[in-house]
Amino acid sequence: MMSYNFYQPTRVCFGAGRLNELGENLKKLNLGKKAAIVISNGKSTRANGALERTKKQLAGAGIEAVVFDKVQSNPLAGTIMEGAAFVKENQCDFIVALGGGSVMDASKIIAIMATNPGDVWDYAFGGHGGGKVYTETPVPVVAITTTAGTGSEVDAWGVVNHEKYGEKIGLGGAEASHPVLAIVDPELMTTVPPQFTAYQGFDALFHSTECYITSPANLMSDMFALTAIENVGKYLARAVKDGNDMEAREHLAFANTLSGHVMELSACSSEHSMEHAMSAMHPNLPHGAGLIMISLEYYRYFIRKHACDDRFVRMAKALGKEDASEPMDFVRALADLQKACGVDELKMSDYGFKSEEFLEMAAKAKDTMGGLYAADRVELSVEDTAAIYEKSFR
C-alpha cells in the first residue's frame, strides 16, 4: 500500500530576475518592519551585488535591515547561538537568508533559537543532543538561494555542526520551520565557480537519487525525483563549463528546488548521514565534495544487495544512459557525469582523512543521524559503512 503526506507552506517565486520582486512580495506578506539579513562569512554576496540588491528591495518595502555575516560553510552551533542573540538584540521581525544551503540551514535554526530557550543542541536528536521538541514558533524566514545545491529554500530542516562533539545533525522539521517565501533566481547563481557548481549540483542530485531508492518513496516523490535527476544529468556539466549559460542555470535551479520538495515527500538515505559524519570531523570538506567521494562505492553496495534493481536502471536512464539494462549502469552513468564535471579525482586524503578513523566515523554517522539509515531498503551496518569509506579512500 502506498501513502504520502505533502504540504508545502513555502511560496516559491522561480525565474530569472525574481529578486526584483522581493519588496512587493514582502509588502503582501507583512512580516514586519525590521529584518536580519543572514549571509556567509565569505565575500560572494557582497562582491556579486546580491546583498545591495536585497537591501534595496527591503528599503523599498519600508523595511529596516541589519546584517549578520558569520555563517561558515559548515555552520557551527556557536554561530547559531550568536545569530539568535543578534536577532533578539536587534528586535528583528524576520530573517532573510541570502546565500547557499549553509546560510539557509543556519537561518532556519537561528529562527528557532531566537524564540526558544536553552542551547541549540538541546533540540538535536542523536549524538549528544537533548532530544527536546521546540514549542515556540520560530521567527519567519525568507530564503533567497544563490546556489543550486540543497533545496533548503523549500524544506523544514537545517544542518549544524557542534564544535565540541564533532557532530553534524539536522534540526527543525516542523511546519513552522519552512521558509515563508523562497526566491529562486538563476541569475544569482551565475557567479558560482565551476568547482562549487559541481559540488552543489551533485548534492541536489543525491537528494533525489537517495529519496528515489529509500523505502518511503512513493508515486509523488518519484515524479519529483526523476525530473530532478534528468535535469541534473542534462545540464550540470554545461553549467560547470559555462557559468553564464542561463538555460543550464535555470534547469539546475529547478532541479535543486525539486530536490527540496522530494525530501519533504520521501527521505534521504544513509549516504547523507555518512557525509555529515565526514564534514563534522573535517569541517573544511565541502558537503557536496564529500558526497561525490563516497557515492560510487555507496551505490555499488546497494546494487550488490539488490535493494531495488529496477529503480537503479530507471535512474541510469534519467541520467542520460538511455540503453541502461542493469543496475550497475547507474554507477557508470554517475561516474561519467563526475568525469564530465571534473570532480572524478577528488581525494579524501587531501582533506586530512586517515583510514584509522573510518570505524569511528561510521559509528558517528549511525549514532547522530540514524533516522536516515532506517529509511534504507537494505540494512547498512557500522562495519559496512566503514568499508564504504575504506573503498572510497585515496
Q: How do you describe this structure in short?
A:
With about 400 residues, the protein is of the alpha/beta class. About 50% of the residues lie in helices and about 10% in strands.
Q: What does this protein structure show overall?
A:
It is a single chain. The protein is of the alpha/beta class and 394 residues long. The protein has 15 helices and eight strands. The chain has helices spanning 22-29, 44-47, 50-60, 77-89, 101-113, 194-213, 219-241, 246-265, 270-281, 287-304, 309-318, 328-340, 358-368, 370-374, 382-392, and strands at residues 11-14, 34-40, 64-71, 94-99, 141-145, 157-162, 167-172, 181-184. It has a six-stranded parallel sheet, sandwiched between helices. A two-stranded antiparallel sheet has the order 6-7. The longest helix is centred in the middle third of the chain and has 23 residues, at 219-241. The model has no long low-confidence stretch (mean pLDDT 97).
Helix and strand topology:
Layout: E1 11-14, H1 22-29, E2 34-40, H2 44-47, H3 50-60, E3 64-71, H4 77-89, E4 94-99, H5 101-113, E5 141-145, E6 157-162, E7 167-172, E8 181-184, H6 194-213, H7 219-241, H8 246-265, H9 270-281, H10 287-304, H11 309-318, H12 328-340, H13 358-368, H14 370-374, H15 382-392
Helix pairs in contact: 1-3, 4-5, 6-7, 6-8, 6-10, 7-8, 7-11, 9-10, 9-13, 10-12, 10-15, 11-12, 13-15
